[in-house]
Structure formats: structure tokens, C-alpha cells
User: Which sequence fits this backbone?
């Protein structure tokens, strides 16, 4: 039964992707360009020339990945982590709209700790930065969970408000007391070498952050499949009244779920600071926290699905630039693809919600 439901979900997602591709092809054709050429250029820009890379790997005797694929993975890393953050909250019946703010405060905390001390061994300094980012994100999201659990404040409103506070607070800090005077752009000081994630040279932005994202996906999967806390989170999300009757501490579980969600989003911010930019840059996020909502829904709240959808969105972002450069097709076509996918997912979620409630409004 479970495998049948999984196949059904996958088929619906495939239909959504097919509709997105058809919509993009129609817009490209209407603009006077060739849909085949444009979409082929987008695919090459996303994953590169895989047959050529395979031939080079055989000659070199070691795996060689195209730069385009490495860029895809780099762009997918924060989307996977923030997508997992949104999914954890949704499992508890909470809609965390505040992943963007949690990414920013987590990134700033990582930058502050990373630049604070010199000469600290990497095996000490780097974990300190990651933990600082996760703790800051957890507190930021946990505040929304606390207000939801004890005061009945809607988490959507609170997390949206916290987004604005995070954006404006980090903007003030990075343009004021925390600004590096030697930097032309609003930014903090560079983090110390011992606080940096391993990153590949060559401008691909590929770093060890992808390993952290995959480890987080495995951890979230284990949380919901093996641990009591995961069961309690899912139970509260399904029916908080029945959970309370069964002895599950609903309020505490709500706060913990939001804190875990915030910690994952904060980790996404830390990866960008420690593995890509090496410092906190003002408004460095192009909207990872908002895109993560679509990533979580497209991945069906499943960690493996979120990894796949994060890679899809990362590929669309990197492939669109290549498509525009080689075919003169506007990169905004990728936005159309994302929008149609999101609409398809939203329709599916709405139908599932109505089905679960017996069609009642």
C-alpha cells in the first residue's frame, strides 16, 4: 500500500513537471525561439556534457564532474537544507514561512563566530560556527513555536514578521557596527581559515556543504522513521487533540519541531557563509527560504524527494543563465517552469486536503 502511494505521488509530480515543460515550450515558441534548442541549452547548463565527462573520467582513472553539475549541487545545497526545515515544521502541522529570516540570522551568527578568533583549530572552530548558526536559527524559529503553543499566535504571521526583523537587523549590522571597513560592499570581516568549509576552486561554489545537506536529509529521515520524537511530531501534525489525550506534550512538541526547523535553515545560512562567500554579505540570499516551500512540497515532505527537488530547482537556476547566453532566450523562462511546478503542487495539496476533510469547506 505504501509503495502504491509513493508511485502515485511520483506520477503526479511527473505530470506537474511535464505541464511545466509544455508551458515553458509554448512561451519560448511564442517569443520566436526554438523550444528544443532553448530547453536543450538549459539542460546542458544544468548538468554539463555528461558523456564527455565520462570519457575524461575513464582516461584520468578518477571521477570528473562537469562544472555545470558542480554549480547545480552548490545551488541545491541551501535549498535542500531549507526545504528540510519547511518539511519538519509541516510534519507538525506548522507552516514555517520564516526560513528566509532563519537563514539570515544563522548565517550572521556563523560569520560572527567564524571571524572572532584566529589560530583556533579547524576541528574546533568549524563546529562552533555551525552550532552557532543552528542555535540561532532554532531560537528564531522556536520563538514562533512558543508563541503558537502558549499564546495561540498563528505561526505564519509570526514567522513573516520575524523575516522582516531578520532582514532589517542584519542589514543594519552589516552596514554599521559589524561592517568590514576594508570591504567596498556591505559585508562582515572574512571568517578565519579554520572556520571555512572545504570548497573546490574554479568558481563553481561547490563545497562540503552538500555533504552536510545529505547528512541532514538522512538525519530527518531517521527522525521520522526511527525516533519517538519524530512519531510525536507527526502525531501532533495529524491530530493535536488526540495526541494530547494520548499523553503527548503537544505544546513542547510544537516548540521542538519549530526549533529543529529553524536549526536546519540556520545551517543553510552557515553553509553559504562558510563555504561560498567566506563572510556575511548583505542580502546574499536570492530567496532560498521562500523557494524552499516549493522544494518541500514538490518533494512530498520526504527527505529523498526534497534532495531531488532541491537539485531540480538548483538546475533550473544554473541552466537558465546558460540558456540565455547561448540562445538569447530570457532566463525568466526558468521562473515560469518553477511557477507551473508550484501551481501543480498547490493544486495537488488542495485536493488532498479536501479529500482528507471529506470535501467540507
Assistant:
Amino acid at each position: 500500500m505504501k509503495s502504491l502511494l509513493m508511485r502515485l505521488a511520483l506520477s503526479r509530480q511527473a505530470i506537474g513537471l511535464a505541464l511545466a515543460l509544455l508551458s515553458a515550450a509554448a512561451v519560448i515558441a511564442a517569443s520566436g525561439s526554438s523550444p528544443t534548442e532553448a530547453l536543450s541549452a538549459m539542460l546542458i547548463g544544468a548538468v554539463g556534457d555528461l558523456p564527455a565527462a565520462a570519457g575524461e573520467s575513464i582516461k584520468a582513472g578518477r571521477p570528473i564532474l562537469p562544472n555545470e553539475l558542480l554549480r547545480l549541487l552548490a545551488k541545491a545545497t541551501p535549498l535542500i537544507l531549507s526545504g528540510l526545515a519547511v518539511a519538519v515544521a509541516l510534519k507538525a502541522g506548522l507552516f514555517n514561512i520564516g526560513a528566509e529570516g532563519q537563514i539570515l540570522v544563522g548565517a550572521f551568527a556563523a560569520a560572527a563566530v567564524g571571524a572572532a578568533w584566529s589560530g583556533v583549530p579547524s576541528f574546533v572552530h568549524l563546529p562552533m560556527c555551525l552550532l552557532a548558526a543552528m542555535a540561532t536559527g532554532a531560537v528564531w524559529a522556536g520563538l514562533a513555536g512558543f508563541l503558537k503553543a502558549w499564546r495561540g499566535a498563528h505561526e505564519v504571521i509570526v514567522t513573516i514578521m520575524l523575516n522582516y526583523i531578520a532582514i532589517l537587523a542584519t542589514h543594519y549590522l552589516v552596514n554599521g557596527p559589524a561592517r568590514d571597513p576594508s570591504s567596498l560592499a556591505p559585508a562582515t570581516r572574512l571568517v578565519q581559515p579554520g572556520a571555512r568549509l572545504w570548497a573546490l576552486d574554479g568558481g563553481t561554489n561547490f563545497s562540503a556543504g552538500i555533504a552536510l545537506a545529505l547528512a541532514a536529509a538522512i538525519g530527518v529521515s531517521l527522525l521520522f522513521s526511527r525516533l519517538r520524537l519524530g512519531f510525536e511530531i507527526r502525531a501532533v501534525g495529524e491530530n493535536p487533540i488526540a495526541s494530547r489525550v494520548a499523553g503527548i506534550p503537544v505544546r513542547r512538541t510544537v516548540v521542538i519541531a519549530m526549533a529543529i526547523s529553524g536549526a536546519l535553515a540556520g545551517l543553510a545560512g552557515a553553509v553559504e557563509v562558510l563555504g561560498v562567500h567566506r563572510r556575511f554579505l548583505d542580502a546574499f540570499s536570492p530567496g532560498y527560504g521562500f523557494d524552499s516551500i516549493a522544494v518541500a512540497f514538490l518533494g512530498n515532505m520526504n527527505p529523498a524527494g526534497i534532495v531531488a527537488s532541491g537539485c531540480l530547482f538548483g538546475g533550473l537556476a544554473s541552466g537558465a543563465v546558460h540558456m540565455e547566453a547561448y540562445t538569447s532566450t530570457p532566463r525568466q523562462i526558468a521562473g515560469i517552469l518553477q511557477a507551473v511546478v508550484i501551481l501543480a503542487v498547490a493544486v495537488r495539496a488542495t485536493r488532498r486536503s479536501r479529500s482528507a476533510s471529506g470535501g467540507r469547506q
Notes: DSSP finds 14 helices and no strands in the chain. Residues 67-319 form a domain with the ABC transporter involved in vitamin B12 uptake, BtuC fold (CATH 1.10.3470). The longest helix spans residues 122-151.
